[in-house]
Amino acid sequence: MKLGEVLVKEGLITKEHLRLALERQVIFGGRIGTNIVELGILTEDEFTKFLSRYLKIPVAEPSQLANIDEETITSISKELAEKYKAIPFKKDKNRLHMAMLDPKDMKGVDEFRFISGFDIIPYAASELRILYALEKYYGIKRDLRYISIFDRIEEEKQVVVTDSEELKKIKQAFANVTEKEEIAGILISEAQKVVKRAALFVVKGSGISGWKAKGLTVEGVDISALSSGGASSIFNDVLVKKAYYRGPVLKTPGNEELIKMLSGTPQDSLTIPISIRERAVALLYADNGVGEVLDANVNYLNTLVSLASMAFEILILRKKIMDM
Predict the structure, then answer these.
(1) pTM over 0.90
(2) CATH number of the CATH domain containing 272
């Protein structure tokens, strides 16, 4: 049974999740696990734990790949490491422990054994982690896409939002709103402090209407969640998964209307659903323009969206109280 099918069977992802990941893989390449992590369906840790069970092989932990000594790295040449997408990370007497993109590749294991003179102990690791290590230790450059995904997952592990005086003021502002336009204003104003372009869209049935923005013109703009041909779009994927998307705006039929509005295809973008009681009522879109990537501050946008969602609920409760 294929890896993706096993993920569905174990209940880690849905059939729809698998469809989205496979669709993205066909368009953009990479391993299925990379696409699943990129879409936010599973974390890297969740995926590698599954991968270990699936392959019946231990996982090379990120900490084990973080600071590998030069003597261990030079056990395997750059050419061989690149050929098999593998990293030696520990020497243990006559054994060499290696993180491999395909740890079941016996041809690779045998070649490593012959060249190094060590017994090879293979470990599983995510494609993202392997490519990061290849660049760090061998200077083998990654595509921008992999840098963007890797940076995002590292930021998500490290960023802890603190109750700074500024954040307390923002929380108070959201708590004091009396109408939805105030929520939109606070959200867009704060978002543009960390990104060049930010836009709010209201979810209306199968369509999405522009509401408020800075750096873009969205008022009066209507975008279908699905194209006329039924092709999936970034907005549709976010609504279906009920999870944010970070990555490039791909030139696909489903994204045509969005690309037209953006005047191009940004290589790094963020779309977050704003939900009330698990129902998406709006979307926040953000990027730094067509040729730029987002930075670590995008995690702040998730905090803003959470606050906006609560502010919407406060308005609803106030209305219910007044209508009683």
Answers:
(1) no
(2) 3.30.450.40
Q: For residue 302, give the 3-state DSSP assignment.
A: helix
Residues forming a β-bridge with 270: 246, 286
Total number of domains constituting the chain: 2
Tokens of 195: 């990104």
Same domain for 72 and 190, yes or no, is no
How far is CA 264 from its chain centroid? Answer: 21
Query: For the chain, what percentages of helix, strand and coil (3-state, to nearest 5) are there?
Result: 50, 20, 30
Residues of the domain holding 218 = 165-323
User: Do 210 and 117 share a domain, yes or no?
Assistant: no
| 176 in the same domain as 292 | yes
Residue type, position 78, single letter: K
pLDDT tens across the length of the chain (324 residues): 899 999 999 888 888 889 888 988 998 899 999 999 888 788 899 999 999 999 999 999 999 999 999 999 999 999 999 999 999 999 998 999 999 999 999 999 999 999 999 999 999 999 999 999 999 999 999 998 898 888 878 876 655 445 577 888 899 999 999 999 999 999 999 999 888 999 999 998 778 899 999 999 888 788 776 544 556 788 988 888 888 888 888 888 888 888 999 999 988 889 999 998 888 999 999 998 887 777 656 678 888 999 999 999 998 888 888 877
